[in-house]
Every structure is written in C-alpha cells, then in structure tokens.
Design a protein that fits this description.
The radius of gyration is 41 Å and the shape is elongated. It is 22% helix and 24% strand. It is α+β, with helices and mostly antiparallel strands. A hairpin with a 4-residue loop joins strand 1 and strand 2. Strands 3, 4, 6, 7 and 8 form a five-stranded antiparallel β-sheet that branches. It has a three-stranded antiparallel β-sheet with strand order 1-2-5, with no helix packed on it.
Length: 212
C-alpha cells in the first residue's frame, strides 16, 4: 500500500512539474497563431485594396502651458509597430467648460513615429487668450480603437480674452533738403511777413500801362 502511495505521489509531482511547460507551450502557440491570422487578414485586405492598419498606437503623455503657448507630447507605444504615414492633430479651445465642445483654433501634423518615439505638439499663437484648451489627434487608418485620442485639458489664464492690436509706430517723414528746419512735408511752413508787401513802389499819380 505504501509503495502504491509513493508511485501516485511521484506521478502527481511529475505532472505538476510538466504543467508549466505545457502551459507556456500553449501560450506561445496561441500567440503564433494570432500573428499568423493578423498577417493573413492583412494580405487579404491588401489584395482587396482595403486600408490596412500599420499596428501603430498613439497616446498622449503630457499636456502643459508653455511660455509661448501650450504643448502636448504624443507617443507611439513601445509594443507597437512603426507608423507608415503621418496623422493630423487639432487644438480645441473653449472660453469655459469642456474644450471638446469648443472650436478648432489650430491644426498640425504628427510625423511617422517609430515604436516608443515621442513628438511634442505645440500651439504658439502671437498672443494666446484665456480659456481651456485640448489637443486631439487621430490614429492611423483602420486602427481597431475609436480612431481618435484627446490630451488632458490645459487652462490658460491671465492673458485676456480678446486679441489686442499692436500700437502703431510714429511715422518717419523723409527730410526736405530745401527746408532743413521743416522735415515734415505735411506741416505748412510758418508765414513770415515780407517788409515790401505794403510799399507802393509807383508813388502817387496816374499811370498808363502799355497796350491800354
């Protein structure tokens, strides 16, 4: 009886030792089968002329106010594949509330990123106005998710809500060489009385003009 118990215990121990290797083998086979299926689906789509996801996957890592405006960092996942083309991004603004319900104030391009690579997106207007901002980016075509991603909201304050026009500079007039004391051609020269204006050079009497 003791001998049978020892044999049973030995078989059980051996089974427990073998099980992790069997499980690992099944996991590896499943991953390989999944990759083969994805490759097969990709080839079928290419043959049909359908868009094919390049297996990239973007996500935002930061969103902050900067001295010149605002910025957000976007990254391609470490386990993703390289982007096969660029995608668009937009900046939304709302004076208050959720920027997603606001208006687009800027758009730009995310360059093709390698796995784990990051790009800093910026919005640097001449004067950024107060309000809430948010970056929106698009995934590569045929991405299995929603296809879009949003950054965290960025609140800007202390800059005013209206654009201000620059103060016009004082116009510079060209110098007038004939009148060095009057360099502004739009300002008339002050009148100086002529001492001969009230002098009668002909004296008194009657005068006959030629031809009369």
């Amino acid at each position: 009886m003791k001998k049978a118990s020892k044999v049973t215990a030995g078989i059980l121990t051996a089974s427990l030792l073998v099980f992790p290797f069997v499980q690992t083998g099944h996991t590896a086979l499943a991953a390989k089968a999944k990759q083969e299926q994805l490759h097969k689906d990709k080839q079928q789509k290419e043959q049909k002329g359908q868009p094919v996801w390049d297996r990239s996957s973007l996500f935002f890592t930061t969103a902050d106010e900067t001295p010149d405006g605002i910025s957000a960092s976007i990254k391609n996942g470490e386990d993703s594949e390289a982007m096969q083309g660029e995608v668009r991004y937009e900046v939304y603004w709302s004076e208050s509330g959720n920027p997603k319900d606001g208006v687009i104030v800027y758009s730009g391009v995310v360059q093709p990123l390698a796995p784990g690579e990051t790009q800093v997106l910026t919005y640097n207007p001449d004067k950024i106005v107060d309000g809430n901002y948010m970056f929106k980016a698009y995934q590569r075509e045929d991405h299995p998710g929603t296809g879009v991603l949003w950054s965290e909201s960025i609140t800007v304050s202390g800059n005013g809500t209206e654009e201000t026009s620059p103060v016009p500079e004082e116009p510079e007039y060209p110098e007038n060489p004939e009148s060095p004391e009057n360099n502004n051609p739009y300002e008339p020269t002050p009148y100086e009385p002529n001492p001969y204006d009230n002098v009668n050079v002909y004296g008194s009497g009657n005068y006959t003009y030629p031809g009369m």
